[in-house]
Amino acid sequence: MRTSLFSLLGASLLAATALALPPKSTKNQKLTNEEWKGVSADPVTSAEIDRLVNQQLEAAKISPSSRTTDEQFIRRVMLDLTGRLPLPADVTEFAEDKNPNKRAKLIDKLLAGDEYALHWSAYWRDVFAAKSTDFRARAMLPSFEAWLEEQFRQNRPWDKMVREMLTSEGQLPIRPARSEPDAKDGASYFLLAYQGADAINDRAAQTARIFLGIQIQCAQCHDHPFDGWKREQFHELASYFAKVTERPVFEMVNEKRQVVAQQLSSKPFGEHKMPDLDNPSHGTTMLPKFLDGKAVNPRTGDADLRKSLADSITKNNYWFAAALVNRLWGELMGQSFCQPIDDMGPGKDTVMPTVLARLAAGFKGSGYDMKTLLRVICNSEMYQRQIRPGESNDQHLQFASVYPTRLPAESLWQSLVTVLGAFPMPGGPQRPAGRYATRFGLEGNFKEEFRFDPSTPPDEIEGSIPQALMLMNNPQIQQKIRAQGTNLLGRILSAYPKDEDAIGILYLRTFARKPTDREREKAMSYVKKVGNRSEAFEDLLWVLLNSTEFQTKR
Question: Can you give the C-alpha Rg of the chain in angstroms?
Fold first, then answer.
């Protein structure tokens, strides 16, 4: 019976976005600050961004979508800022609030809460961990996530966070912690996540990709065919890491000497060679030089070498500010100025570059305050517009509406728990679930199955058969769906004897909105057709949880 119920819901297909086309020139590229020359670094307002975008929409004769309803807005902004669904009482109270500033007040409240730090630490954990393949990196993740959470809780400026990651000299455990992980040296994860023969190249590639939004790793082996980056530039960037290394930390564990941690260390001497293409065993010694052409004395020690790199990246660098703006804008709007979200750089096609430049300058002017940037975007009319899927996979909506995207694994799990209630942990309720990388039971399996790299273009994030089967058939989830005892449906059917009222509260609980008239009529008809109230409502809840709407940000 459940399969036929999918007609209750209008499935919205997620269109793909492919913005970044090969630039027209392949000449040697250099990073410059030309993009924000003359652009004001004064605090940017939501109204100013709306005005800049609307001017370009009018010129292109593109009509923006209408404003979201209060129900749509509270679900969207809570998922974006905290990774959690609103409860029915939250939705009702917000919809009934007559205060014209209630949306701005809600945004401020969410940014000030603990859930904000938890949600965004999980997001950035996945950004940094996605490209690491070293088995030790996974064991070091809890300390890194704890460090990230501390940074977001304190609203630490982005440039200070990046500087600490690039200049860290700490150590991290590589075995599961029996207690809450220590955030003290968590910043060391960025460098320790890459080890072995290719560590120096991996560190250079990820430094450019995450902190500058530039994909330069292709130039490791050959000049980039489209972007203009040369092999020499990649290996000059890698040379900043020539004197940093890692060493194992040993302890006696159960009377055996075991590696329990990895420690960042500095070598007094070190150089990086660009391999010869004809004879990889030979190479050319490369001197550290940033992507803007500024060289550093190769005799500089490791600590000062990495500090110099941190300076070049974070001090008055347009691409550093723009990369963060582009990423957060893309996360909130569904489409970014440059796509993929981490593939920017000189010569790349950019949608509304003047808006990106103004936001980047304002971000720098705010002292790289991430909450300020999120507040500006969320208070804009662009962010508060209705969703509108593109007509084709390569259509950019020009920010005339918000583009629907899949919920990340953490948010989807939290949504499931919000609707159905907490799931028991293996070994009994006394075992804490924890909020860091070590997970147990259904929670761990669920997140691993649904997790994806946040930097992946939206059109490349696809559902899988194992994901569908987990939501449709998992015994623990099915048990929670049953209309019995203290389960969600058991409480709803007991508290709401009228089917129409029960349907309304079920939609509020799962979609954070009331059902449309058509949805209510179809659901009422189905309940009557089945003849068994409990069974019919179990089917209805099952369909809602397996719908596109439940699994996407809209």
Answer: 25
